[in-house]
TrEMBL record:
This is Aminopeptidase N. GO terms for molecular function: alanyl aminopeptidase activity; metallopeptidase activity; zinc ion binding. Residues 461-490 are annotated as: Disordered. Belongs to the peptidase M1 family. Residues 473-490 have a biased composition (Low complexity). PANTHER family: AMINOPEPTIDASE N, PROTEASE M1 ZINC METALLOPROTEASE. The keyword Kinase does not apply. Its cofactor is Zn(2+). Residues 50-218 form the Aminopeptidase N-like N-terminal domain.
Length: 515
């Protein structure tokens, strides 16, 4: 994120008038940020520092009306720029002046300001828009969940275009203020801390603030009728969990899981370092999906995650992402392993802590239960491709890579790395190669071969020698029990039940699994 002093719009406009367009090479910003998996995602030419979203939503009709104010800084001399938005735009103003706009493709809003925008001079962009998010199709699908009492925005790799204009890619994080007006008796849940709420003429407005850099896909909105529990952690962080009033038989198990959020976060702080954000919690709306998502400070959980009873393991997974995925985010979507491999491994560590199977025992089971000809081994977690971005191999083979690393360098350096990485890279972005370099620096060992074996080779790594001498095999595979385990560890059923945690139903993910 680029943080710069924000110049008021009127001042910025006057400064721009002093610079004739001929003095600089003003060019349009790129319509995509450059991610090879999703070429249309994000945009080039500017960096957003803050989103202010003022919304009104009517659950009965699914009508969303919004005014979004973006505070951004051009990273080049801009003649025009794009935003990602699927709803209908009514007006755009740049630095207070009306701007021309047109739409193209499925989500591109092309904005031409009245005056070109010089590089490095902050600007304000105001977009007035409306529409019914559930009726908006981008790539043939919608990221918006319609519920019996409202609607929910929670999807990956993108959901922002269904409810606000943005630079929709994890590379451009920003802070958020989300203000939502809904009919009395209905609540609006979003990220961060509830700053205030007030009622007037049959409508209640909820004002939320997320004050640390946040990727656009991690912004969430849920409107409906919720039972809400609140608390504070020992360190003073506000905790807010929300449960739809009509969860039916899943209601008790959902509460028994989410109400352990603060406990899980305290344990994760021991593993990953200080919690990076200003609030904790989660929410379970009445949706038909089966996945969960690490929406920042307030993860989304589908009721089906609790269909077989409470499952704290899924809470562990989503909260681990607050460090690995939310605070330290992907540079590009090919780097998904630095999100998912670590979130899955955190479930293995929780199992170890709870005495339900060590991480090594879980690694042994995963390795032994997948024969060499299983397509599982052809998926490369370090660059799985968009069709396999959320394949179970990114999770399980990704966690095997971490167990192999742990065996290679020992617990002391391994846990130094787990804690040091999200501290050193807090609120930024990273590639898989960045983590490999960091692990080598901390451990003092060359680890390229190990990571190549586990993250990039489309085949099952060689098992350790039958003699049980694990040392020689450590660089190729985690130590695997011989003979193969007769039964999975006790925690396996709960962990495996979260394999659909990222199975969002996005067409590109069919056959795969999503976080």
């Amino acid at each position: 994120m680029h943080r710069r002093l924000i110049v008021p719009g009127a001042i910025a406009a006057s400064l721009m008038l002093a610079i004739p367009a001929s003095a600089a090479n003003f060019q349009p910003g790129a319509p995509g940020i450059g991610d090879p998996y999703y070429p249309a995602s994000g945009n080039g030419g500017y960096d957003v520092g803050h989103y202010d979203l003022r919304l009104k939503y009517q659950p009965a009709t699914d009508l969303l009306e919004g005014t979004a104010t973006l505070i951004a800084t051009p990273t080049q001399d801009l003649s025009r720029f794009n935003l990602d938005l699927g709803l209908t735009t009514h007006e755009v103003r740049v630095n207070g002046r009306k701007a021309e706009f047109r739409t193209s493709g499925a989500q591109e809003l092309e904005v031409t300001p009245a005056s070109p925008l010089p590089r490095n001079r902050p600007v304000s962009v105001v977009v007035r828009y409306s529409g019914k998010p559930s009726e908006v199709k981008i790539g043939g699908w919608t990221a918006w969940h319609r519920t019996p009492d409202g609607g929910v925005a929670a999807q990956e790799p993108d959901s922002a275009a269904w409810w606000f204009p943005s630079n929709d890619h994890p590379l451009d994080k920003a802070t958020f203020d989300v203000s939502v007006s809904v009919p009395d008796g209905t609540q609006a849940i979003s990220n961060g801390v509830l700053q205030s709420q007030s009622s007037r003429l049959g409508w209640t407005r909820f004002n939320w603030r997320s004050d640390k850099p946040q990727a656009t896909y991690l912004a969430t909105l849920a409107v409906g009728r919720f039972d809400i529990t609140t608390d504070t952690t020992a360190g003073g962080l506000p905790v807010l969990n929300a449960y739809s009033k009509d969860l039916g038989a899943n209601a008790g198990a959902a509460r028994a899981s989410l109400e352990r959020t603060a406990e899980v976060a305290e344990w994760l702080e021991e593993v990953f370092g200080p919690y990076p954000f200003n609030a904790l919690g989660g929410y379970v709306p009445n949706v038909r999906s089966g996945y969960a998502l690490e929406t920042q400070t307030r993860p989304f959980y589908s009721p089906r995650q609790f269909a077989s009873g409470s499952n704290v393991s899924v809470v562990v997974h989503e909260l681990a992402h607050q460090w690995y995925g939310d605070s330290v985010s992907v540079e590009g979507w090919k780097d998904i392993w630095i999100n998912e491999g670590f979130a899955r491994y955190s479930q293995w560590l929780w199992s170890e802590k709870e005495g339900e199977g060590t991480a090594q025992e879980l690694a042994d089971w995963v390795y032994a239960s997948r024969p060499a000809d299983d397509p599982f081994w052809t998926v490369k977690p370090g660059d799985p491709g968009p069709d396999d971005q959320f394949h179970v191999a990114v999770y399980d083979r990704g966690a095997l890579a971490l167990q192999a690393l742990r065996n290679e360098i020992g617990d002391e350096d391994f846990f130094r790395i787990l804690k040091g990485w999200p501290t050193e890279r807090a609120y930024g972005n990273a590639e898989v190669a960045d983590f490999v370099a960091y692990a080598e620096r901390i451990s003092g060992k060359r680890l390229g071969a190990l990571f190549d074996t586990w993250l990039y080779q489309p085949s099952k790594p060689q098992a350790p020698a039958a003699t049980g001498d694990r040392t020689a095999a450590r660089s190729a595979a985690p130590a695997v029990a011989d003979p193969a385990p007769a039964a999975p560890p006790k925690s396996w059923a709960k962990i495996a039940a979260t394999n659909t945690v990222h199975d969002t139903g996005h067409p590109v993910h069919e056959g795969g699994h999503r976080h």
